[in-house]
Design goal:
heterodimer; A: six-stranded parallel β-sheet; four-stranded mixed β-sheet; 10 strands; B: alpha/beta; five-stranded parallel β-sheet; 7 helices; about 30% helix
Chain lengths: ~450, ~190
Amino acid sequence: MSEQVGKSLWHADAAEVFIADEPRTDWHDETLWFVRSKRDKASMQVPEWEELRELASGIKDHSLSNLDNYLKEFEEKATANGITVHWAIDAAEHNEIILGILNRHGFNKMVKSKSMLTEECHLNAFLEENGIDVVDTDLGERIVQFRQETPSHIVLPAIHLKKQDVSDTFHEHLGTEKGNNDPQYLTEAARGHLRGKFISSPLAITGVNFAIAETGGFVVCTNEGNADMGAHAASVHIACMGVEKIIPKAKDLAVFLRLLARSATGQPITTYSSHFHKPRKGQEMHVVIVDNGRSRQLGRPDFRNSLKCIRCAACFNTCPVYRRSGGHSYHTAVAGPIGSILNPNLDMKANADLPFASTLCGSCSNVCPVKIDIHQQLWKWRQVLAEEGYVAPSKKVAMKGMAFLLSNPRLYRIAGRIGRSMMRAFPGLMNNRKMNPWYKQREMPEAPAQSFRDWFKENKT
Amino acid sequence: MSSRERILSAITANKPGLLAAPALNLSVLPDRTDMVARYVRALELIAGKAVVVSSFDAVMEDVRATRAAGHYVVNTIAALGPLSDEVTTDTHADTLEPIYKAFLSAEFGVVENGAVWMTESQMQNRLVPFICQHLVICIRATDLVPNMHEAYDRIREMEGYGLFLAGPSKTADIEQSLVIGAHGARSLVVYVVE
């Protein structure tokens, strides 16, 4: 994919940089597999697990098929609850709405808990350009923010880092003891630092895990308590949500809250599942509903059910490619298998490499709590991208050549014979990393003396 | 056309035909055996501690001892003695930050995950269960539901703010090492009053 134009680093190239450090790659791989194993254990303790997945999938299918009406219902109820509802067609409008609220109050600082939507909209960079001091309050997000990086995982934002990296970063930014790598000590330092930010921040942004049409409220799930610390301390709370976060009824939450944390980290539920319905006395509460391409994805029958995603990241943790290439190789806010089917909708050209960053093994679809056919969609995106001309010309030529060869038995046999003698006569040619990228992480097999066809002809009785 | 209209009309044009909502029926019946013991175990698994007591006396003793040690205690449970009237819905975070231990009551507990459900009126201020260093919650042993479905069936009033709280604040963002006490309470004790 490296021949594609207009992109500095495609997934395969970025992954190559990541895997250059072999022990770290192994650690990353094993750590995420451990999280996947915890998910397995948690799910197996719930006998009705598969029924819950079926229900969750059905509720989301239903919600998407009635999304316009549910959004209107949510807006009406939320407004009646005293929440101001805003609509943003794209990332730019979302960012402007938030800046507008900050400016109207004359605020120049704010805290923000985890919201992949604001990452998708590049909100931090936009606000910083406009003189706003933005503090990410999730521990992992604060770490990557100090390092001027982006989250590499939607649930575990700093999973690409080791504790000595965090220690160095905190030593530089928080003045912690150099070389003290104790996670307890480092977390305590962040706790002290962020308490001050929570208490002094006039405005807090949170994401939204679920928005309830029936009641006009929204639910935010965290383990650290940072979303609540920010939202309850601030005089203005803004919650940002994609249009697809709507569910019809409060009772549907039972299904999703039973699935979400078990799928994400193997916990039976997140520590805090906060149900916001009205601003507290004296507080101002806003919800920004964002489209940013989601209505377009809704119109693609092959890809619309990617909008059912509840952002648990189970597909990341199980993915053999994600585990061994790291989140930053995906160069988008949402990495992993689900990101690879969402991002081509946002920008087909810039994200044309992502559906190819997969072995199509299907493990992602098997663990998905809302039963998105992720691997099928990866495969379908490859076809769309090829049709739209976003696949490297070399790949296209190679595929055409291969199709021609495989449909001509005589030609295939001749090519096989040539290939085998070439491998024997000039092994250096095949074992050359520049000429044969396949050899990079692999040994070439010994060339057999004869083809299977010849062997079969000789040996059949 | 406003963004609202543009978004809604694009969704109307692009959405699939209406699919029916599934009925929320499960073939597996909830386990109602040993609810108290199973709740205690569930809370232990998420780093909380449940203490089964026969009356509020033990909790009152906790309040008294914590106060006697010179710590700032917030109590919102009438059965435990004097209430902390100074905490109201709009008390500023500055005033709440020094809370050492808060005593709150919850409506019910959930056996499958160790969570308790509480609303704004039980917290007096939404920040209290988060900003206190240590959190103590009282529920009645009869107020336990087996799973989240029955939990939502039981909620009558969401109020302006409602919370499922399951254990103390935690994080594993540094190399997946579990650390208790990220931003919220460093410990959680749930007294289950029989």
